[in-house]
Design a protein that fits this description.
The protein is mostly helical. It has helices spanning 2-36, 43-47, 79-89, 101-114, 124-133, 140-156, 159-169, 178-187, 196-205, 218-234, 240-248, 264-278, 282-286, 298-308, 360-371, 406-411, 415-425, 427-432, and strands spanning 55-57, 291-293, 326-330, 337-342, 380-383, 402-405. It has 18 helices and six strands. The protein is elongated and about 110 Å long.
Length: 433
């Protein structure tokens, strides 16, 4: 009797569990359908991974069309480069159907143990969908949309075509899009010239385009590169000897100043400012339907670009290298920035902010002193260490030239001469000027 009762209880529990499971599946299916019923795969975004629905216009209302990097077909992408990204981002990429169930279960277990969402399980298909179709918001609704579109993507395209679009649309920071441009900017190489070490380094950068940038933190890039090389060996893409050789290879980062399309510098800065205003990321803005009207003047931008890229205007150092340089033009009538150009890839225009330093001398001292007739370029000043009303300035490295003209004072950036002239000019008149 007891045995019979136990079987009955066990049967009821099993039925309850099955019913609960079926109910959960039905609820998930209903939620999934409700969240994704209007979501469709946009082939134009896959076929052109540099796709952007954001519109920018110049001061005349004409569209601004910044470049997005060269596009390289799968057949011309080195196998080592594909393998590096697959090993680092999605080791079962060539086996799954767009989502990796085993990875999802593993990530779920680890997150439960950690008590937080520390680990993701996005495949390359899902990342391509997120980069071209969806925002960065971390919500259940966005995730189910991503899963649906990833499954559609895998059914509609070959694995080769998917990874081709993915690699050509990746953002590497500093305004660099796609593996072809990244190889050129970081290493001054074509894709076919890349070593195993450099392929692993490119796969490392996208984990954190700013934090692992070779221009910002080479030490951290090496650490992440080593992880990628280890993953390539564990997945059978390289052997132990190849890994050891790649680990010993030093990355030679390009110091060549690449010619940047004239409007790229301006467009990147527009996106950064718009991000601060809207609270959206640059990627979310690119996928948005916003229209951004700017003060951009393409003719002025062309002049700035030609000037900054003219080698006759930039003095080379003893190693034959030219400095980073930028130019910015502001319209005095409306305060709008008409043109901005920089000859080097930077993470942020706001990273250019510096104290004015010695440029303050001609602006705040000598120019108003000329206006008020206090000095001329030929006026002689005593460039020796001395005190001005209790203040004792000093020249760089305590070098003093004695009797010099204002022209020489500007040339050698004398602090003594500048304070001397300012004491005659007065701070009030300098501020007014």
């Amino acid at each position: 009797m007891k045995k019979h009762s136990f079987k009955r209880i066990l049967f009821k529990c099993s039925a309850a569990l099955i019913l609960t499971f079926i109910t959960a599946c039905l609820i998930f299916a209903a939620v999934f359908y409700g969240a994704t019923k209007d979501v469709k795969l946009d082939d134009s975004k896959i076929l052109s991974p540099s796709f952007t629905s954001l519109q920018m216009s110049d001061v005349n209302g004409s569209p601004i069309k910044p470049s997005r990097g060269a596009y390289t077909p799968y057949a011309d992408i080195p196998k080592n480069l594909v393998n590096a990204f697959v090993a680092a981002e999605d080791k079962r990429f060539f086996e799954h159907n767009g989502i990796d169930i085993a990875r999802i279960i593993g990530a779920l277990k680890n997150n439960i143990k950690a008590g937080s969402l520390k680990e993701g399980a996005s495949t390359i298909d899902q990342q391509l969908i997120k980069n071209t179709h969806l925002s960065n918001e971390k919500t259940f609704e966005r995730k189910v949309k991503e899963i649906k579109l990833a499954l559609e993507l895998d059914r509609g395209y070959s694995k080769e075509r998917i990874v081709e679009a993915y690699l050509n649309g990746l953002y590497f920071g500093c305004g660099v899009y796609g593996v072809t441009s990244a190889a050129e900017v970081f290493f001054d190489k074509t894709l076919t010239e890349l070593t195993v070490c450099e392929c692993a380094a490119l796969a490392a950068v996208i984990k954190n385009p700013y934090g692992y940038s070779p221009f910002n933190n080479l030490k951290r890039l090496y650490e992440r590169r080593d992880v990628v090389l280890s993953l390539m060996r564990k997945n059978g893409y390289i052997d132990a000897r190849q890994e050891a050789d790649a680990l010993l290879e030093r990355l030679i980062i390009s110091d060549k100043k690449p010619f940047i399309d004239a409007c790229d510098s301006y467009a990147e800065c527009v996106l950064e400012e718009a991000s601060k205003i809207t609270g959206l990321s640059a990627k979310e803005l690119r996928l948005s339907k916003y229209t951004i009207r700017t003060y951009y003047n393409p003719d002025a931008e062309k002049i700035l670009a030609d000037a900054v890229n003219n080698p006759d205007y930039l003095l080379k150092n003893k190693n034959g290298k030219t400095p980073d340089a930028f130019a910015l033009l502001v319209d005095n009538h409306d305060g709008g920035i008409s043109a901005f150009y920089i000859n080097s890839y930077i993470a942020s225009i706001y990273g250019l902010r510096r104290q004015p330093g010695s440029i303050a001398k001609p602006l705040f001292v000598y120019a108003p002193a000329f206006k008020y007739g206090i000095v001329t370029p030929s006026t002689v000043i005593d460039d020796t260490a001395r005190e001005f009303d209790g203040y004792s300035p000093g020249n760089y490295k305590n070098k003093y030239l004695g009797q010099i003209t204002v022209r020489q004072a500007v040339k050698y950036s004398s602090n003594i001469a500048a304070v001397d002239v300012l004491s005659r000019l007065t701070v009030e008149r300098a501020k007014h000027f």
